Write a sequence for this structure.
DNA sequence: GTAGGGTTAG
């Protein structure tokens, strides 16, 4: 009975397996010779081999080996070992199968133990061991691999190639090249290994040179070259060589090289080139239904092309392709949905979401983040509650949504729920919550997050930057300084900006300016944000000339266009110094409309230097910009009052009443003029 | 047992 069942399996297997993997044919033959000891001499020989191991009972060595390989592939090494240990009989394949398991796991000591205990080894046993040693991380075992390579009784092409690839992976291309030259016979894989080895180690010239010298190429040669070149940022060169060489072995494998290129162009926003390649993917020779030619483009080709359109925000073209697809997988749907989400087109996104057959966690998260980003937090939260399986991204998306929409309560609430649920926050979570602590000026929340950051394995620079900002916003400038010092050599512009800004906003102008100089000495290029802090520091301590100089150097040396904030600081600097007319001239010459900060700076300066006339101009401008604000009225009123100009003071008061300006607490002098 | 191969969420 058992044999009959097997027979059926054998008969059925080749039809779908042979097409993909030519070596399956060999497996099947092997199988057949072992299991059917009737018929021709070839089969009889197979049976004889099996008998040698077993004695009288017919063993099922093939089944045993198959079982071990299966368990090994499933990662169930313990079970595999149990089967191996209790097996009544083993052949070399059995041992090799078991060794494979340990090699794949990197447990080389165990593998070696088995290998040393083998009654007989074949080339595969040796190759397995070498491959294990050579692919171990850290390349510490490459010497062990080499030792076995030297010891083995006979080497085949695979032995040489494995050793070469080991050296290539360890970055030792000289040794790889030496072996390559020494080997008695080279095959395509040997050449491919060298080409990809050079590319892996950044030697593009030699890779291309080797590729051109190859006696024969297959699709793997081209795929390897293309992906390696793209990794070395040689996209156009990759495309050029690829298009020159066509399809070396004529198989469908070449599609993946097309896909790599399409992705390369797509990711760089070069959608026309991506589309050109997409349209170029050849027809296959076999015919589909009705003799029509069949596209070799596979699902990934379509998905990658749609992705390219999505990347540049062209949802129309993406949707057109999406509509043309005869078969879609979750990637297709998710890419299209994320396209709409990125364009904030939640209407279309939700339509697709409803039509999608089996939305996965990616899909749900896309929708959630889309709603969260567009401010529709109810929808986001609703989906979040409804989704079948949440992951960290789901939590983070909603929390980030709350944060962006300044619903701090919602964010903190969900965050604590997250902690109660035993979820482990990551840098995304923590940076959202840090932004909230900063926004709320909530030092105790910030301290909690700092604790969590400390527990992280490898907190990155952005999170440290957020900590600096949080602490300085909360007034804990010493703590900010501590983090700043901790970042050491990894400081980026944002780190510097955060600390300089912290100093500047707390009136530590000297420290801010000192840090600014240090930053320039270390050749960190300041940004417009740096200059906002620097200028405000200068304004604080009345460094007129220095302020002017920084403003000029910002424009001339760094080519930064001053924003309205920079102008406000400049007006502040010049005005505080008493150069009110110059301050007014600056305002008049500004390339953009002055805002309330600019006029406010002038008004403050006028108050400081008792220039009522100009104060009136500034105050009136402010009244226009902020019709509800009582501040300019109050200030102007006080100035007139202080100067004893009561007519004008009362006029301001009447103006205020006429415009129905509500008086703010703290400006009570308007109520009792005399 | 050796070479290459793409796409989605914060």
């Amino acid at each position: 009975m058992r044999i009959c069942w097997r027979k059926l399996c054998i008969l059925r297997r080749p039809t779908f397996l042979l097409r993909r993997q030519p070596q399956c044919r060999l497996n099947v033959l092997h199988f057949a010779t072992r299991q059917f000891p009737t018929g021709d001499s070839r089969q009889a020989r197979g049976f004889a081999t099996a008998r040698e191991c077993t004695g009288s009972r017919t063993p099922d060595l093939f089944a045993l080996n198959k079982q071990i390989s299966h368990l090994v592939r499933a990662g169930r090494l313990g079970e595999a070992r149990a089967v191996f240990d209790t097996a009544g009989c083993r052949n070399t394949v059995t041992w090799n199968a078991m060794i494979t398991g340990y090699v794949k796991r990197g447990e080389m000591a165990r593998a070696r133990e088995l290998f040393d205990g083998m009654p007989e080894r074949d080339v595969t046993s040796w190759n397995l061991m070498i491959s294990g040693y050579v692919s171990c991380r850290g390349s510490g075992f490459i010497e062990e691999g080499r030792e076995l390579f030297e010891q083995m009784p006979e080497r085949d092409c695979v032995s040489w190639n494995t050793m070469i690839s080991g050296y290539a992976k360890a970055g030792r291309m000289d040794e790889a090249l030496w072996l390559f030259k020494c080997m008695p016979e080279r095959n395509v894989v040997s050449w491919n290994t060298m080409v990809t080895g050079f590319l892996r180690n950044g030697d593009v010239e030699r890779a291309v040179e080797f590729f051109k010298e190859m006696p024969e190429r297959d699709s793997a040669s081209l795929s390897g070259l293309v992906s390696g070149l793209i990794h070395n940022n040689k996209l156009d060169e990759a495309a050029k060589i690829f298009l020159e060489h066509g399809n070396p072995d004529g198989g469908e494998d070449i599609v993946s090289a097309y896909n790599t290129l399409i992705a390369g162009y797509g990711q760089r926003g070069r959608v026309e080139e991506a589309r050109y390649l997409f349209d170029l993917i050849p027809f296959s020779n076999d015919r589909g239904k009705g003799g029509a030619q069949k596209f070799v483009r596979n699902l990934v080709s379509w998905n990658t092309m749609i992705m390219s359109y999505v990347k540049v925000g062209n949802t129309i073209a993406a949707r057109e392709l999406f509509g043309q697809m005869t078969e879609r997988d979750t990637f297709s749907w998710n890419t299209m949905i994320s396209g709409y989400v990125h364009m904030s087109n939640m209407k279309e996104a939700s339509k697709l979401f409803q039509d999608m057959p089996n939305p996965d966690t990616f899909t749900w998260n896309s929708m959630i983040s889309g709603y969260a980003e567009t401010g529709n937090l109810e929808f986001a939260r609703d989906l979040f509650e409804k989704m079948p399986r949440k992951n960290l991204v789901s939590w983070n998306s909603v929390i980030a949504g709350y944060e962006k929409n300044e619903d701090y309560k919602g964010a903190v609430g969900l965050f604590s729920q997250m902690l109660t649920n035993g979820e482990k926050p990551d840098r995304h979570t923590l940076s959202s919550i840090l932004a909230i602590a900063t926004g709320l000026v909530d030092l105790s929340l910030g301290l909690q997050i700092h604790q969590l950051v400390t527990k992280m394995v490898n907190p990155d620079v952005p999170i440290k930057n957020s900590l600096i900002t949080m602490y300085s916003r909360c007034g804990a400038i010493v703590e900010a300084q501590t983090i700043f010092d901790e970042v050491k050599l990894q400081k980026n512009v944002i780190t510097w900006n955060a600390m300089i800004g912290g100093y500047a906003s707390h009136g530590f102008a000297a420290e801010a300016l000192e840090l600014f100089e240090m930053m320039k000495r270390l050749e960190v290029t300041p940004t417009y944000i740096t200059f906002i802090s620097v200028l405000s520091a200068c304004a604080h301590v009345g460094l007129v000339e220095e302020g002017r100089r920084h403003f000029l150097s910002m424009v001339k040396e760094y080519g930064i266009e001053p924003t309205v904030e920079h102008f406000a600081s400049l007006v502040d600097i010049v005005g505080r110094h008493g150069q009110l007319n110059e301050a007014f001239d600056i305002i008049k010459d500004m390339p953009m409309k002055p805002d309330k900060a600019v006029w406010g700076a002038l008004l403050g300066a006028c108050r400081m230097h008792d220039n009522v006339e100009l104060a009136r101009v500034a105050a009136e401008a402010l009244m226009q910009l902020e019709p509800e604000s009582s501040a300019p009225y109050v200030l102007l009123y006080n100035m007139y009052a202080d100067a004893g100009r009561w007519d004008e003071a009362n006029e301001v008061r009447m103006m205020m009443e006429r415009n129905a300006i509500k008086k703010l607490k703290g400006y009570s002098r308007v109520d009792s003029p005399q």
Observations:
- Residues 2-20 of chain A form the longest helix (19 residues).
- The beta strands of chain A are 283-287, 293-295.
- The CA atoms of residues 258 and 280 of chain A lie 9 Å apart.
